[in-house]
Write a structure and sequence with these properties.
Elements: H1 2-14, H2 26-29, E1 37-41, E2 47-51, E3 57-58, H3 63-75, H4 96-100, H5 111-121, H6 127-142, E4 148-149, H7 151-159, H8 162-173, H9 181-192, E5 194-196, H10 198-209, H11 224-237, H12 243-249, E6 254-256, E7 261-266, E8 270-275, H13 286-299
Antiparallel strand pairs: 1-2, 1-8, 3-5, 4-5, 6-7, 7-8
Bound molecules: 6-diazenyl-5-OXO-L-norleucine.
The site of 6-diazenyl-5-OXO-L-norleucine has 13 residues, from loops.
């Protein structure tokens, strides 16, 4: 495993086109694009890393996997009255389907869907409590108390978040929200701004590769059926309008973030986190996707066969 990921890291370092860092969140535009990291966590407790796997980055939309998991734990199947389970085929911040579909987002991973999920996590309008719970959940999953929100990134998102605010107010206009829009947005922006290393992220995702059980702690995070379903959503919706292409090239459930991270799950085998800040035109990590494609080819771990 170490030889495989060392070779991938070397190839990525030599790649001439590293994509473009996100610029619509100013704080993310400051990140050096010449960085790459990969970590692989195995159910037996071993973790392998190459590149800058100790550098924290903004996990952004990857946090949506974990807020979905939390919301399922709190509300169970009831969350499907708030969000759907279909790929959108549209960009992550699109508003077009929302009007046709009466303010119910297509899935929990597009921005509108994740904002709706944030609303379900908040109890009695307290975004601080919801955020503390989300951060605590990440620490628990990664078995690492150093995980925290990057408040500079969060402020940057709040200051430039007009599109997300539009999505939220539009949904609220259908009477769908339980909490004030500003509390929901605050929760959403801050959970996107959690900073983690690939090593922490690979460990946090391991329950999805292990029938819902975190092998490091032995805790059952979700049932095997729920782990399977979260993986299904990651495969079909985790890369927005690039989900088909990601399935075609990599063949693993995956969730991208505009900070350049991707969490990929090889069910029964491994949780893999990659990070490279440069993005493709859709907004998914360019080298991260290339690295996972190489990884899936070398290991034969695509869910569609070797
Ligand atoms: O709301 C946003 O636009 C960001 N906080 C998250 C978007 C994101 O990560 C899209 N993923 N590739």
């Amino acid at each position: 495993m170490q030889a495989i990921i060392d070779e991938i890291a070397q190839k990525m370092a030599a790649s001439p086109d590293k994509g473009k860092v996100a610029s619509y969140i100013p704080q993310l535009a400051r990140v050096d694009p010449n960085q790459f990291a990969i970590s692989v966590a195995l159910p037996n407790g071993e973790t392998y890393s190459a590149g800058c796997a100790q550098t924290s980055f903004s996990i952004q939309s990857i946090s949506k996997v974990f807020t979905l998991t939390l919301a399922l734990g709190k509300l169970g199947e009831h969350i499907w009255t708030r969000v759907g389970r279909e790929p959108s085929g549209d960009p992550f911040n699109s508003i077009v389907q929302l009007e046709h579909e009466h303010g119910k987002p297509r899935n929990p991973f597009i921005n509108a869907g994740a904002i709706a999920i944030a609303d379900t996590i908040i109890q009695s309008s307290q975004s601080e409590e919801a955020l503390a719970e989300i951060v605590q959940f990440m620490r628990f999953l990664a078995d690492d108390d150093s995980i925290a929100i990057d408040y500079k990134v969060a402020r940057s998102e709040v200051e430039t978040g007009n599109r997300n605010a539009s999505l939220a107010y539009f949904m609220a206009s259908f009477g769908h929200f339980n909490n004030p829009v500003d509390a929901v947005l605050r929760t959403y922006f801050h959970h996107c701004s959690i900073a983690m290393t690939t090593q922490q992220l690979a460990k946090a995702g391991l329950f999805l590769a292990n029938d819902g059980i975190n092998p490091a702690t032995g805790y059952a995070i979700v049932t095997p059926q729920r782990a399977k379903r979260i993986n299904a959503l990651m495969l079909t919706c985790g890369h927005y309008d690039g989900s088909g292409e990601f399935a075609f090239r990599v063949g693993l459930p995956g969730k991208s973030g505009v900070g350049g991270g991707i969490l990929a799950i090889a069910p029964g085998k491994a949780s893999i986190a990659v990070w490279s800040p440069g993005l493709d035109v859709i907004g998914n990590s360019k080298l991260g996707t290339e690295a996972l494609e190489l990884f899936a080819n070398k290991t034969g771990w695509s869910v569609f066969g070797s």
